[in-house]
Amino acid sequence: MQDFLQTLPKVELHLHIEGSLEPELMFALAQRNGIELPYATVQEAKDAYCFSDLQGFLNLYFQGMSVLRNEQDFYDLAMDYFRRAREEGVVHIDMHFDPQAHLQRGVPLEVVMAGLLKAKQEAEESLDLSIGMIMAFLRDRPAEEALHVLEQAAPYWKMLDAIGLDSAEKENPPSKFVDVFERAKQLGLVCVAHAGEEGPAEYIKEALELLNVERIDHGVRCLESEEVVERLRREQIALTVCPLSNVSLKVVEDLRDHPLPKLLSEGLKVTISSDDPAYFGGGMLTNHLACAEAFGWDKAVFRQLTRNAIEEAFTTQQRRDELLRRLAAI
Ligand code: HPA
Ligand code: ZN
Predict the structure, then answer these.
(1) Which domain does 258 fall in, by range?
(2) Which of 47, 182, 298, 315 has the most CB atoms around it within 10 Å of its CB?
(3) How many folded domains does the chain comprise?
(4) pTM of the full structure
């Protein structure tokens, strides 16, 4: 199974590039930029990655990304992850990034975009990897700020595949962002949103009805509403489920308690991603191996999950066909 899961042409639809910042690179960038970290060693940082909820993680996530200041830092961050993901057999990544988290530290959007786009281009040319770009908005910040950033991003609109919605979910319902998502739709951008991770099933319904999203990030709490499950099934809306993230952030106590098998038996379009691999114990291969062990899934299940992800990936029809052929060949 390990060999099969390594070879499986895995497609990651839910990855925060800032959450791929490994402590080793964090220390190297802190030194390069003369930034003081609250940890004395890499091990101390790793020991601090013990969370009781989403907010506890977000505090360290925003703290960690403070080392990213220059174009080269964003390039190094992304290339470092792309190389590691490729070694784990990943062939496509839809990458969320959080411009507001950098703008509020005084890092210009141009710096963020230049570094990430250079890494994307290089990975696509030399690593057999395709990359989608999802500009995400922080839902615990004002909607007006998100709208302003979306306008500010005008030079990059054509390089974006989608907009997303992340950060603290509780008390920040999708309805807060109707104007932002309407504007994105006007611009021809696809919309996705985190919903039903810590927030209720109602937020999934709102994201679908008010924000017109094409995919739901996480969505595991859909099972609390018969009506929401029915809609997700009927419209075959993809859920980008992140098993080890859900364990780390105590959405579930243990992976064996995770609703993934139930989501599948309900006929939902499930996919598997790593979310923030540097913080949650591993990347795509680790997440797949953990699921194999916890649920005893056979190859056919993993093939179906991968087919789902390939079908939903932000890429060209040519690349999608190629990935489907590669999946059929293993
Ligand atoms: N949920 C919400 N916001 C996030 C996450 C997440 O899992 N990771 C990075 N930002
Ligand atoms: Zn996420």
Answers:
(1) 2-329
(2) 315
(3) 1
(4) 0.98
